[in-house]
Design brief:
The protein has 282 residues and is α+β, with helices and mostly antiparallel strands. The chain has helices at residues 2-7, 28-31, 39-47, 62-77, 88-97, 109-118, 139-148, 152-158, 172-180, 263-270, and strands at residues 36-38, 126-127, 132-133, 166-168, 185-189, 199-200, 217-225, 233-237, 245-246, 258-261, 274-278. The strands form three sheets. Strands 1, 4, 5, 7, 8, 10 and 11 form a seven-stranded antiparallel β-sheet that branches.
Length: 282
């Protein structure tokens, strides 16, 4: 259990609520109704591989993991070619330092989305010319980047990997429209799921919010299903590796470590105000 408790990394600051973020296109309120889109399937069709879940371990960089997975899947599903997965430590550090937050662990999805637009993200490569090897996950790197910021040289790399746009998502209708338009959604809240940390999905692949236990966590939504006659919901991909959750799946081809949630629970998360649709790279 300690691993998961340490792996949380979302903070909620009163300063956040005064921040203005781009509003989504108005047509998102209706375009996703009675339909579906499964970005994880499109990713597999385009790349030939099922997306493998990230594992942040004890690093408190869930916000960085969520937006990095969103960019991974957005680019892969649209046929874009990334040289490697996106590094969670870099965007986690930038989102904190550029907002003057260094007093404790954690970040916010809104900060990370804005940073991915203005600064960019970096692939997990060995930057030998900079003496920086980012090819593996590193708790130490996340801690260092979160405390003092990533090396300035990496910002020049990130300038080549900026997202085109992002939008704040506030309800189930907007979330459907975002996914229908090809945007994964990073979600940050204190809404937790399951009765304990050994979660098991129900017969339809769902977990349900546990009102008596919060998570203060960030994840990414990569699919939705709102078809008539189907159990409506959204597919959430976590960053705790492949084995933290078990049980049946809704479709049979969801990435390991993922689970479905109901529109009601989607709205509970989105009401916290820290969820964003992430656009493709420029």
């Amino acid at each position: 259990m300690y691993k998961f408790l340490l792996a949380l990394g979302l903070i909620v600051s009163t300063a956040f609520w005064g921040t203005r973020h781009p509003e989504p296109p108005s047509h998102w309120n209706t375009t996703g109704a009675n339909s579906s889109r499964f970005l994880h399937r499109e990713y597999e069709q385009a790349t030939g591989f099922q997306y493998y879940p990230r594992n942040q371990g004890p690093a408190p960089n869930c916000v960085g993991q969520a937006i990095s997975a969103a960019v991974d899947i957005s680019e892969g599903s649209s046929g874009g070619v990334l040289p490697a997965r996106i590094d969670a430590a870099f965007i986690y550090g930038v989102s904190r330092i550029d907002n003057g937050f260094t007093i404790r662990d954690g970040s916010q999805c809104g900060w990370a989305a804005a940073s991915a637009l203005s600064v960019g993200v970096v692939p997990m490569l060995d930057y030998q010319f900079l003496g920086l090897d980012l090819t593996t996950e590193s708790v130490r790197r996340s801690s260092d980047y979160g405390s003092t910021g990533p090396p300035a040289e990496l910002r020049f790399v990130a300038a080549n990997y900026q997202i085109e746009d992002y939008y704040q998502v506030r309800n189930w209708e907007q979330l459907r429209g975002a996914l229908k338009s090809g945007y994964p959604i990073i979600i940050g809240s204190n809404v937790g799921f399951g009765p304990n940390y050994g979660n098991k999905r129900d017969s339809n692949g769902f977990l349900y919010s546990a009102r008596w236990r919060g998570w203060s966590h960030a994840m990414v939504i990569i699919a939705y299903d709102d078809r008539i006659g189907e159990t409506s919901g959204a597919l959430v991909l976590n960053s705790w590796g492949p084995g933290w959750v078990s049980g049946p799946t809704k479709l049979g081809d969801e990435p390991l470590g993922s689970f479905w949630i109901t529109p009601r629970d989607v709205n509970r998360i989105l009401a916290r105000g820290d969820s964003f649709a992430i656009g493709k790279l420029k």
